[in-house]
Amino acid sequence: MRSRSGSSRFGRTVHGRGPGNRGSGNSGGRFVDARRLEPQESPLTQAVEQQRFEQNHPDGTAAQIVQRQADKRRDRRRRGRIAVLIGLIALLLAALAVILYAPAFRVTSSSITITGTNKWVDTAKVRQIADSAVGSSIARVRTDSLEKQITALDAVGSAKVTRSLPNKVSVRLVPLVPRALLHDGKNRYALVDGDGKVISRPSSAVSGVPLIEVQDATAGTDKPILRQTLAVLSAMPSKLEKKMTKVSSATRDSVTTVTSDGYTVIWGDSQDMRLKSAIAEHLIGSSQMGANRTIDVSSPERPVIKK
To answer: pTM of the entire structure?
Structure first.
C-alpha cells in the first residue's frame, strides 16, 4: 500500500515526475525494489569480516605469501654470502699463519742476494745489514728499513730491497760514480761523485779519476768553485772524462783540465758542455793542433788553440 507521504514499507520513493501525476505539476515518486540496493556495511561489520578472513587465511593474501617467500630467499642468499666471506677470511688467516711461522718461509743468509756492488762499495757492510733479516719470516722483513740503512753507506747511491716467496730477499744497489779525487797539502784524499758525495777516502791517488787540488780534502764539497768543477766533469762524455788526469779552477768560470796525453782544456763553466765537449774531442790529437797543447772552449762559438 502506498502511504500519503509517498513511501511504503517495502522501499522508498524517489521524487520526480511520474506517470500518475502528469500534468498535475506536483512532484511524484517511483518505487524502488530494496532487493536491488547494495547493502551498506557498518565499520563493526567490516571489522568482523576482516577478523574472520584472517582466521580462515592465516598465511595472508597470495601477494603477502609471495613477498614472504621472496624475503626468505633473499635472507638465505645473504647468509650464504656471509658464510663464504667468513670462509675466505679463515683461509687467509690460515695462510698468513703458515707464512709467519712455517720454517720454509724464514729468511736465511743463503736466501739473500746482493747485486750492483763495485770496488768502492763495502760489500761486507751491506751483507751485515741485509743479514739482520735472517731468521725472520719473509712477511716480517721491513724492506724500507733495510733500504734506508744501505743507502746511508758510502759509495751507495740507492738501494732497492724486494721479497719473494718462500724466503728470498734481493738487494739491488746503484753505486755512486767517481768523478774526481780531492787532494790537499797534507796528502789526504777524498773520492767524490758529481754531487760531491764522498765515495771513499783512499790513501793514495786513484788511476783513471781526475785529481783536484783543494785546501782541505776532509771539508765539505759545497763550495761554489768545487761544485762547478764537478759539474763540468759530470757533463763530459765518459770517453773524454777518462782522459782527464787533473782539474783546477781559480774561479767558478775558469775550470781547466789536463788530459793523460798532455793537452790542456779550458772549459770555463758548465754551460754548453755538449758543444764544448764535441769541439775538445775533435781537436785533441788532431792535425789541427800542430805543436799547440791548449784548447780554450770557454766560448764555444769561438774556440782558441794555443801553446
So the answer is: 0.62
